[in-house]
Amino acid sequence: MIDVGKLAAVLGSGVCSALPGLHAWSGCDTVSALASQGKIKALKLVQANDLYLQAFTDLGSSWNVPTDVFNSIQAFTCQLYARNTKIVGANSLRYHMFCAKKGQIESGQLPPCEDSLMQHTLRANYQAAIWRRSLENLPDVPAHQQDMAGNSMMGVSLKIRWMAGLPAPDVVLNLISCTCRRTCRPSDAPAY
């Protein structure tokens, strides 16, 4: 048996307020986890930095993710992947890590790109918002999603949106070529 009251007293009210956001963001039943990044490492970073603590406390407070919260989470992600870095942008850190390893790095060792990180943070925010309203009698939960243009998506099957943009700049995508020994049809072409 774990004495949750004692654990809460040891962690403190600030960390306890951040736990729903941190737990959702670092991986739970409904939100995927980032490759090779554990919860203990994330918790230690949050405990050591008030900016990160505030960001995860704010995650799930509303149904959208404010820019300042996402910027803090992006800086947190950079620290998660490269402990002593001064880089605070996911795309910049990805590029720096890729160049430092001269391209000899597995994609799971790189942080997600900014676009994917935003989608991940939006999923975690939604889950944390549900948890933060779990004791309300009739919580005000959005009944349906909207697409980027604000059009209702009622009746559309739910799918995880991994990215909102292209997986790489057009310049890089143009460099990718098929290695088939025969002529490819569009359905045979490699997926990005």
Automatic annotation (TrEMBL):
Protein name: Uncharacterized protein
Top-level division of the source organism's lineage: Eukaryota
Classification of source organism: Eukaryota, Metazoa, Ecdysozoa, Arthropoda, Crustacea
